[in-house]
Amino acid sequence: MRPGFNFLSTFNILLLLVLVSASSIKAQHLSAYAVKKIVIDAGHGGKDPGTIGKISKEKDITLAIAKRLGELIDTNLEGVSVVYTRTDDTFIALDERSRIANKEGADLFISIHCNAAPNKSVTGTETYVMGLHRSSENLDVAMRENAVITYEDEYKEKYEGYDPNSAESFIIFTMLQNAYLDQSLDFASIIQSDFKERAQRTDRGVRQAGFLVLWKTSMPSVLVEVGYLSNPKEEQFLNSKEGQELIASAIYRAVKAYKSKLDDYSNAILKPKPEETAPSIKPVTKNTQEPINSKIEFKVQVAASQKPLSGKNNPLNGFDSVHVINTNGIYKYMVGGNLSYKEAQQLCKDIKTRFPDAFVVALEDGQIIPLKSALEKINSSN
């Protein structure tokens, strides 16, 4: 272990950060089963060339593929927006790349890279997710990609003592399992399948390793090694327009298939039951208290969706009385009977432990009205 690297201290700090952030990640990113925004990260850039082949630099190839992938998504996937970490030959710090993805609230993060190996006969694609190093080869790839941080000022402080040249530093990643590991693995498998079946590339599989660029992303994330610049034939392929189009198209098809899979899953959960096709306010069965104003009542809104909620995974299961109003195509779900405003506030306080975004709503003759108007009407009638 190198002098000055306090591994135990760093380990404890990271363990605390992981435990503290686990719940906040889930709270901030509830659209775990939808793909509406994708951040595409072209590896390296600027003063960091990445892997250098005989006729090319990694930073140029990754940018070309990233931009083409974004064009395909923009053109063909309605309702999906694309954000790039870079669109030109600019150096972007590793932690800034993940910060962009988190700030944008992305549903997918795709980092594109090129590989290299001492054995120049090695070819093929491999897709990584954040996880434990299962082999020395995976460790070597991660160490090479992570060495980018040496281009950054004060990288030792920024990455909490991480040493890109020390295998011992990688032990810290044993506590950094991606909160979206299963989804990341699923997406990575789809990418590799398309590379193999449709793009006819050598399949080197889905792998796990401790990549700093994936470290702090709070969404399904992958790092795609699209080929080996150390292999002359594959370098020629990756430098050609045809090769870049084939790689970008393969990743695009994987995105499309992954999105379709999540859409199907969501539709299965949210598929309405026959009796829910025309939801309406149901009679109150639990609370018999008379409202202060016979036309005005208060409830607590706990959810809203474009499709009726149903099925065993319905988050509203367990409530005795759920009222539904369809307003401009949005189903709004409320609980509580003919409550006074004070009672509704107390109920809302209790419900917030399960639904942090719950709030009190006022209804007049079964229709939602501004809360302020409801209170003014009640006060004027007293």
Give the helices and strands as they follow along the chain. Answer: HEHEHEEHHHEHEHHEEEHEEH
Q: Between the first and last Cα atoms, what is the distance in angstroms?
A: 76 Å
Strand order of the largest sheet: 2-1-3-6-4-5
> What global shape is seen?
elongated
CATH architectural grouping of the largest domain: 3-Layer(aba) Sandwich
As for the number of domains, it is 2
Tell me about the largest β-sheet: 6 strands, mixed
Mean pLDDT reading: 75
Task: Specify Rg, calculated over alpha carbons.
Answer: 26 Å
CATH topology of the largest domain: Aminopeptidase
Q: Can you tell me the CATH class of the largest domain?
A: Alpha Beta
Low-confidence stretches: 1-31, 133-138, 167-178, 272-293
- Give me the secondary-structure category: alpha/beta
Question: What's the total number of strands?
Answer: 11
Percent helix among the residues?
A: 25-40%
CATH superfamily of the largest domain, by name, is: Zn-dependent exopeptidases
Give the strand content: 15-25%
- The number of distinct helices, counting runs of at least 4 residues, comes to 11
